[in-house]
Design a protein that fits this description.
The chain is mainly α. 73% of the residues lie in helices and 0% in strands. It is extended, with a radius of gyration of 17 Å.
Length: 79
Amino acid sequence: MIEKVALGMICGFLLGFVLQRGRFCMVSAYRDVYLTKDNRLFIATFIAIAIQSIGVYALADLGWIRLAEVPFTWLTAII
């Protein structure tokens, strides 16, 4: 268990470092569209979210991961 957590943290830090150095973030994507009229980063972010969404549900459909149903609470969404 500890090994998985440590490996996950190392991978997370490395991925975060690479994404930060490459300015790959939501704020930069929207800011560039508004200020410089450059939408390349916005499109890249949109593609990454689409691939992730499809990938998670494909893995769940194959049975490799299990998605737990979380109840939707209106009060929490409003707050």
